[in-house]
Design brief:
Protein name: Peroxiredoxin
Number of helices: 3
Structural class: alpha+beta
Number of domains: 2
InterPro entries: KH_dom-like_a/b (IPR015946), OsmC/Ohr_fam (IPR003718), OsmC/Ohrsf (IPR036102)
Number of strands: 6
CATH architecture of the largest domain: 2-Layer Sandwich
CATH topology of the largest domain: GMP Synthetase, Chain A, domain 3
Radius of gyration: 17 Å
Oligomer: single chain
Length: 140
C-alpha cells in the first residue's frame, strides 16, 4: 500500500492514496491553517471507524442478516501532552434492519475488534484503550 502527501502551503496538505483518491487536510486557524479540510488525527479516527464498520457489515451480510444500515459513532480522548496520541477510543455501532439477531450483531462487532479490523488491533497494540458497544434498531 502506498500514499503520497504534498504540502500545499500554510498548514494545508493534499493526500493521495495509491488507489488514486485524494483528500484535503488542514489545521485550525490558531495553528496556521485555514480550516479547509479534515485534521490528520480526525482522519485516523475516521479510518478506524471505516475499517471496523466495513467488517461488521461484511460479517452480517455473510451471515445473511437483513442489515439495512450500520453507523459507528466514535468518541476519542487524547493525551494532554505532546505527542497528543489517542488514549481511549469508544466505538458505538447502531445497526438497523428487520429481524436482526442480536447474537450475530454482537459476534460481528467482537470479530471486527478482535480479529479483522487491522486499524483497531494496531491502535490497541500501541496502548490505546479501545472499547465497543452496539444497539440494534428494528425497522418496521
Amino acid at each position: 500500500m502506498k500514499a503520497r502527501v504534498q504540502w500545499a502551503g500554510d498548514a494545508l496538505f493534499l493526500g493521495e492514496s495509491g488507489s488514486g483518491h485524494a483528500v484535503v487536510m488542514d489545521g485550525p486557524p490558531d495553528a496556521g491553517g485555514r480550516n479547509l479540510g479534515i485534521r490528520p488525527m480526525e482522519m485516523l479516527l475516521i479510518g478506524l471507524g471505516g475499517c471496523s464498520n466495513f467488517d461488521v457489515v461484511s460479517i452480517l451480510r455473510k451471515g445473511r442478516q437483513p442489515v439495512e444500515s450500520c453507523e459507528v459513532f466514535l468518541d476519542a480522548e487524547r493525551a494532554d501532552e505532546e505527542p497528543k496520541v489517542f488514549t481511549k477510543i469508544h466505538l458505538h455501532f447502531v445497526v438497523k434492519g428487520r429481524g436482526l439477531k442480536e447474537a450475530q450483531v454482537k459476534r460481528a462487532v467482537e470479530l471486527s475488534a478482535e480479529k479483522y479490523c487491522s486499524a483497531s488491533i494496531m491502535l490497541g497494540r500501541a496502548g490505546v484503550d479501545i472499547s465497543h458497544d452496539y444497539e440494534i434498531v428494528e425497522l418496521g
